Each structure stands twice: as C-alpha cells, then as structure tokens.
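User: I've been trying to design a sequence by hand for this structure and keep getting stuck. Would you show me what you'd pick, starting by listing the structure so we're on the same page?

Assistant: Good idea, let's start from the same input. This is the structure you sent:
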C-alpha cells in the first residue's frame, strides 16, 4: 500500500512538472517583439494561431441596452491584433470601443501617427452610454506599430467632453450662399433654412447593367449649411475611393470637422466606394473651407468598372 502511494505521488509530481513545463513552452511561444508590444502598450493579451491579440476592454463603462445591464464581454471589448506578413513585417487590425466625445480625438491621434481608420459605426441601438466602434489598420514592424497606435489608445477613457456653446437660434447675418458657393467651387440649392451643395462623382464612370450611376442615384459628396454666417452648422457625406479615405479624414480633422461615420452605401460596386459622414459648427466660411479641403482630395485617380453581380 505504501509502495502504491509512493508510486502515485511520483506520477502526480511528474504530471505537475510536465504541465508546468508545457505552460512555460506556451509562454515562450509568443515572439519577443510581441512581448515588447504588450509592455510598450501596458496592456494584456495573448498569442494564438500566429496572432497577438491585445485587449482594450471598456471595463470603465457601465453599459445597458434597452435597460438591460450588459457586461464588457457582451460586445464592448475593444482590441488590436498583429500578425506576420510574408516579408516579416506586421499587419495590424483592430476595433476600438469609443464614447462619442472620444471618437474624433482618437481619430486625430491615430491619423497623426500613420494609422489608418477604415470604418466607424455603431453596433447597437438603445445603448447607454452611446458608443461607437472604430476599425483601424496599420503596416510595419511590431514595435513601430505599437508606438504609432499608443497615443490613440491612451486617450480612451481620458477625454474630457468639450463644452458646447449655446446655439444662437439664427440671430445674426444670414448665410452668404454666394460666398459659400465660391469657396467650395460649386453652386448649391436653398431648401428653407438649409443651403445644400451636392457634387457628383462622375469621374468614377460607375455603371450597373449599363445604367449610369450618377449623383441622383446616390453617388455624390455633399454639404448642408444652416444657421447664420457667424454661427453655422454643417453636415454632409463624402463619397471616396479606398485610397482617398485617409487624405479626406486628415483634411476634415485639420479643419476642425468631426467625422461621425465611415461605411458602405452599396455592395458589389466597382470601384469600391466608401462613404463618410461629418459634422461641424462655426463661422460658415470656415466650415466651407473645411469641406473644400476634403473635396480637393477626391478625383486624383479615376478607376472605372462595372458594378459586380
């Protein structure tokens, strides 16, 4: 009996040693440059299937959906991931969970450091607080990507909401629509209190079943103005090719306009067109200059293909 117990203890001890050894091997499987990424970002993560997943959970938020308490793993666990490309560099992708007031500060920090933002949208209705999801992309060495993405990540949970100036209620000089049209380089149309300038993307030559897909079919960029010349609001939509997204984002943010969505309006379109929605408030001429800056980034390349089916 004693000999059997001793043998069992030896087996148990050997098993524990084996498990500890296996755990050590697994820990060592993470490439050293990925270990440095976790240290640099001061984040937790794991390495599986050749991918480093860095966790950016919004544990600081107490989320509810239609009054239902929803814990972070329910859909509020942001992340970035890195994996090796064929040439030894790294591909980075990610999905960041952001409050409304965090979206544009984080967007600017990422753009300023060479990280692309590829989508911005909601994942839920009736969420409280209101959150948006920002998809990001980057290429380079792991350490460099960590350095470039860190300023944006560090803002999450640490943005002070901007104080909102009271709306003037339309008191002041009316919109000088002729001046706005001159700045933008296109005439607009008046509809009640709103002056709207619409610019088509005829340069893309998009067709479906031989039908021309023009501005009236939704392939357009526009800006709507309301308010006074001194205190106006602008909202609009920009139709962009993939290689135009980052330049347009930079132009809008440089001119103080907020980006509120980046997504598709169509499927099967060739060339692929992405739509960006924006908002801003300030002197009407300044808003027009910001819109014009974004408009100037369009049409520098003109692929033309049929829509796919």
């Amino acid at each position: 009996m004693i000999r059997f117990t001793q043998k069992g203890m030896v087996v148990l001890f050997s098993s524990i040693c084996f498990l500890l050894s296996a755990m050590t091997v697994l820990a060592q499987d993470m490439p050293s440059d990925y270990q440095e990424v976790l240290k640099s970002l001061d984040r937790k993560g794991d390495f599986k299937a050749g991918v480093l997943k860095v966790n950016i959970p919004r544990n600081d938020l107490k989320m509810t959906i239609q009054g239902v308490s929803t814990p972070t793993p329910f859909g509020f666990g942001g992340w970035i991931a890195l994996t090796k490309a064929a040439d030894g560099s790294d591909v980075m992708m990610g999905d960041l969970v952001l409050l409304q007031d965090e979206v544009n500060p984080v967007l600017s920090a990422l753009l300023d450091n060479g990280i692309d933002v590829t989508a911005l949208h909601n994942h839920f209705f009736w969420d409280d607080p209101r959150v948006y999801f920002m998809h990001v992309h980057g290429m380079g060495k792991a350490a460099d990507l960590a350095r470039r993405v860190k300023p944006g990540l560090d803002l999450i949970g640490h943005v002070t909401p901007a104080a909102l100036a009271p709306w003037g209620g339309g008191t002041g000089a009316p919109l000088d629509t002729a001046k706005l049209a001159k700045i933008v380089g296109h005439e607009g149309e008046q509809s009640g209190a709103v002056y709207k300038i619409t610019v088509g993307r005829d340069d893309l030559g998009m067709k479906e079943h031989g039908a021309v897909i023009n501005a009236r079919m939704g392939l357009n960029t526009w800006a709507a103005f309301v308010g006074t010349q001194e205190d106006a609001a602008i909202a609009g939509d920009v139709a962009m090719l993939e290689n135009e997204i980052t330049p347009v984002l930079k132009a809008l943010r440089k001119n103080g306009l907020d980006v509120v969505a980046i997504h598709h309006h169509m499927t099967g379109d060739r060339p692929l067109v992405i739509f960006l929605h924006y908002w801003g408030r300030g002197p009407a001429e300044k808003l027009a200059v910001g819109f014009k800056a974004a408009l100037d980034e369009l049409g520098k390349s003109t692929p033309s293909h049929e829509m796919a089916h």
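That's my pick for every position. To get oriented when you compare it with your attempt: The radius of gyration is 25 Å. The chain has two domains: 32-155, 177-295.
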